[in-house]
Specification:
By secondary structure, the protein is α+β, with helices and mostly antiparallel strands. It contains three helices and five strands. It has helices spanning about 50-65, 75-80, 85; strands spanning about 5, 10-15, 20-30, 30-40, 65-70. The protein has a five-stranded mixed beta sheet. The chain is globular and about 40 Å long. The N and C termini lie far apart (about 30 Å).
Length: about 90
């Protein structure tokens, strides 16, 4: 799946332009972003779309040397389960 990136969001669309999944985040300061929401279309739940989106944000913030507040419940669970994500988590 091809993840598109825009300011404050990463998303995946199918070939027709229908939204498959989206993650939104905001800057809380110049060194931190907060993941607010993760959405996956019903037809694609269980396909790993949400995890790909969270991973996309984590990798981008790692490159930008920014920390993440996982306010979204799904993201918070991943941050607890995946050790490499914890190093990106804001304290």
């Amino acid at each position: 799946m091809n993840i598109e990136k825009a300011k404050g969001r990463h998303y995946i669309q199918d070939r027709t332009g229908k939204m498959i999944g989206e993650i939104t985040f905001i800057e809380t300061d110049e060194h931190t972003v907060m993941i607010e929401h993760t959405f996956v279309d019903e037809d694609h739940r269980g396909d790993g779309v949400a995890r790909e989106l969270v991973d996309s944000v984590v990798q981008e913030m790692k490159r930008e040397n920014k920390k993440i507040i996982p306010a979204c419940q799904f993201a918070a669970v991943l941050f607890e389960r995946i050790p490499s994500y914890k190093e990106q988590m804001a304290k």
